[in-house]
Design a protein that fits this description.
With about 170 residues, the protein is mainly α. The protein contains 3 helices and no strands.
């Protein structure tokens, strides 16, 4: 077994068996790879046909959503303006109601006063009015005139002096 040709022949024989085994194992893998390549090709063809339409639909959807958002913004601002107008109208109605209330009270008070005047007896209507009160003269005379002073009494502690007539 020292002959190198035997070892060379044996090595080539083993190499041949290894290559045959490799080919036998790789053939099913290559067949599966070919199927996957055909499937991928069909998928890419379908994708090539459908993707532009899908992307175009997505662009239209984005534009529609943008338009809807703009419409919503306009609607919200319009609703805000309507609420402000309603609030202003309510404030005006409250003001007018208070003015009507005040006017109604004034009319009611006027009617009551007129009714009292009309239902009073005739002699009570002709009652004389009092003249206005005369102005009270100041208690102290002007400083240019001198008045005589009266002697003052010393204060007493009896109840008769404090409460006369008891």
């Amino acid at each position: 077994m020292t002959d190198p040709l035997i070892w060379l022949g044996l090595s080539i024989l083993l190499l041949g068996f290894g290559l045959v085994a490799l080919v036998c194992v790789s053939i099913p893998a290559l067949i599966g790879l070919a199927r996957a390549a055909r499937s991928a090709e069909k998928f890419f063809d379908t994708l090539d046909r459908e993707l532009p339409r899908t992307l175009e639909a997505m662009r239209h959807t984005g534009a529609d959503l943008s338009d809807l958002a703009d419409d919503m913004t306009d609607s919200v601002s319009s609703a805000r303006n309507i609420v402000k107008q309603v609030d202003q109208s309510l404030s005006d109605v409250r003001l007018q109601a208070s003015q009507v209330k005040r006017s109604t009270r004034s009319v009611a008070v006027g009617f009551r006063a007129a009714w009292r005047v009309l239902t009073k007896p005739a002699n009570a209507r002709k009652r004389k009015r009092r003249p206005p009160p005369k102005p009270v003269e100041p208690p102290h005379p002007p400083s240019s005139q001198v008045q005589p002073t009266s002697p003052q009494r010393p204060p007493s502690n009896t109840s008769e002096d404090r409460f006369p007539g008891q």
